[in-house]
Amino acid sequence: MAGWGDDPELERLRALVDEGWTVVEITDDPNALGGPADTVVLSKDGNTETVTSDHLQFHHYVEWLREEHLDK
């Protein structure tokens, strides 16, 4: 898993969530090339976006998303 540096995919994910996209699926791949990675699938108005990153900050944000949007 990558460190705490800037992660454009985290910023993209945050922007999509802020724009009202709905989290529909979160998966983690502990065997991803380059280290463990998380993937979030979002939907809005019939469109789907997928965001993947191996950054630690991304992982923490995804865990929060999982608790707030999927585990309720």
Could you describe the 3D structure shown?
- By secondary structure, the protein is of the alpha+beta class.
- The chain has one domain.
- The protein is 36% helix and 32% strand.
- It is built from 2 helices and 3 strands; from the N terminus they run H-E-E-E-H.
- The chain has helices at residues 8-18, 56-70; strands at 22-29, 37-44, 47-53.
- A 3-stranded antiparallel sheet has the order 1-2-3, covered by helices on one side.
- The protein is globular, with a radius of gyration of 12 Å.
- It starts with 7 loop residues before the first helix and ends with a helix.
- The mean pLDDT is 90.
Brief sketch in words of this structure:
The protein is of the alpha+beta class.
SSE blueprint and pairings:
Elements: H1 8-18, E1 22-29, E2 37-44, E3 47-53, H2 56-70
Antiparallel strand pairs: 1-2, 2-3
Tag the structure with descriptive keywords:
3-stranded antiparallel beta sheet, 72 residues, 3 strands, alpha+beta, single chain, globular
Helix content: 25-40%
Report strand %.
25-35%
Overall structural class, as computed from helix and strand content, comes to: alpha+beta
Query: Mean of the pLDDT scores?
Result: 90
Number of helices: 2
